[in-house]
Amino acid sequence: MQTKKKRSLNSNPSSSDGLDLDPARLPHHVAIIMDGNGRWATRRLLNRINGHQQGADTVRTIIRTSREAGISILTLYAFSTENWERPQIEVNALMDLLKKFLKSEQQELMDNHIRLNAIGQINRLPDDVRQTLHETMTLTRENNAMLLNLALSYGGRSEIVKMVRDIARKSVQGEIDPESITSECIQEHLYTRGIPDPDLLIRTSGEMRISNFLLWQIAYAEIYITETLWPDFSKDEFIQIIKDYQQRDRRFGKINSQRRSLKVREH
Ligand code: IPE
Ligand code: IPE
Ligand code: MG
Q1: Cβ neighbours of residue 30 closer than 8 Å, sequence gap 6 or more
Q2: pTM score, two decimals?
Q3: By C-alpha distance, which of 124, 119, 199, 131 is closest to 155?
Q4: Average pLDDT, whole number, for the chain?
Q5: Active site residue: 35, 111, 197, 199, which one?
Q6: Is the CB of residue 140 less than 8 Å from the CB of residue 172?
Q7: In 108-251, where do the E strands start and end?
Q8: Residue 131 in contact with residue 102, Cβ under 8 Å?
Q9: CA geometry: angle at 235 spanning 234 and 241, to 5°?
Q10: How far, in Å, CA of 62 to CA of 68, rounded?
């Protein structure tokens, strides 16, 4: 049986009111490109690895805040397929940090009923990291208050390549009729199978690019880019960004009067 810890948010699952958010307009799925750890460290004449360590604290804060705000899915871009090409010492430090992070967060994930999932080329992760990842996913698999989706060794293009190969194989084997391939069929063959697309995509540290993140899934995501470097990203700024999102007019290619009449018809 789980014991309820003091910092568990379970007793107040929709506490977005306390954060002054509109619960009816919360983004269901928030995805974040956590960028700027290296610059944060370099500006302080520190080693880039110190930046990643500091960034891990921000990850904790943002997971907690997401849960508190009542967000259902949080996807964090932690390591890209391209990041393998960084100096080995930095890659090793990131892998080490990831393993320590997972170990240290297991209890917090349980206390707050958060399920962990991973997307990406998980088989490329070192054995010990992969083992800890699987252990944490297994431990948290029944949790249903929030999904924490970590993009690890993730690349949008390699995800698409994998999807095409899987569908092509099934077509050759006669399992899938090429004429019946739809957007839904493609979605079913992505790492994010069963997970709705992000509503809000945040990138820290000011770069105006996607860097191979969720290429298919962000078709209609609202984008917010902040100059703040990831280690400096705070609960307050995160909440401000969600408030900004809540003011946006998501038209999905339609015009406003169509959206209004749709709403009238729905009710
Ligand atoms: C993001 O910070 C973390 C990872 C990509 C793993 P960076 O390490 O990219 O930091 P900058 O962009 O060099 O400042
Ligand atoms: C994107 O950041 C990947 C992650 C945040 C994990 P990068 O620092 O790798 O992206 P680029 O090189 O600036 O495009
Ligand atoms: Mg970067």
Answers
A1: 66, 71, 73, 74, 75, 198, 199, 200, 201, 202, 242
A2: 0.92
A3: 119
A4: 93
A5: 35
A6: no
A7: 114-119, 146-154, 200-203, 222-225
A8: no
A9: 90
A10: 10
Of residues 12, 47, 57, 83, which has the active-site annotation? 83
Residue-wise pLDDT for 54-82, tens only, equals 999 999 999 999 999 999 999 999 999 99
Contacts of 141 (CB under 8 A, 6+ apart): 115
The DSSP call for residue 31 is: E
256 is catalytic: no
230 CA distance to ligand 3 middle (Å)? 10
Element (H, E) at 78: strand 73-80
> What phi and psi values does residue 243 have, to the nearest 5 degrees?
-65, -40
CA of 38 to the centre of ligand 1 (A): 5
The answer to whether residue 46 scores a pLDDT higher than 90 is: yes
Residue 189 to residue 219: CA distance in whole angstroms? 17
Tokens 């940090």 appear where?
97
Which numbered atom of ligand 1 lies nearest the CA of 41? 14
Closest ligand 2 atom to Cα of 79:
6
Fold of 25-154+196-266: Undecaprenyl pyrophosphate synthetase (3.40.1180)
